[in-house]
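Our platform keeps sequence and structure together, in a single record for each protein. Because each token names a local backbone shape, the row as a whole describes the fold. One such record is reproduced below, unchanged from the form in which we store it:
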Amino acid sequence: MITEATWAIGPEPVETAGLLRTYFTDVASRYYGRPATEAEVDAAMAEDPSDDLACFLVGRYAGVPSGCVGLRLISPGVAELTRLYVIPAGRRTGGGRALLAAAEDAALRLGARTMRLDTRRDLVEARALYAAQGYREIEPYNNGPYADHWFEKHLGH
């Protein structure tokens, strides 16, 4: 009998399974167009700390930590999606959609009715995911040094 692996997503400490460092290594490497050094990853993590996340969710695919996503509350009723990441072995399994849906549910529980995010132009898969899940491009809401695109979605009914 063959069973399909599934995603289980829930809140866990930011330090869980090293996923945050893996995320920063991936996005820094893509930014530089080469493998990022440990020092560059350390610098990126220091420049953009995660200690202000209102929620951090870890996705486990077939029981293995395989993805993560974080939320910040940036103003009353508005959450910001950040650090959405799926490890390469977990991609094309529905993890990105599952993590995004779980983050939207968490934002609603935190009182947010709007979700915003920013992303870079080279993260084309992320931009396609957001658009497919109902996010629309908006004018910049921040001046993040690595932000090229800003998205928003109204949550709930």
Summary: The radius of gyration is 15 Å. The chain has a mean pLDDT of 92.
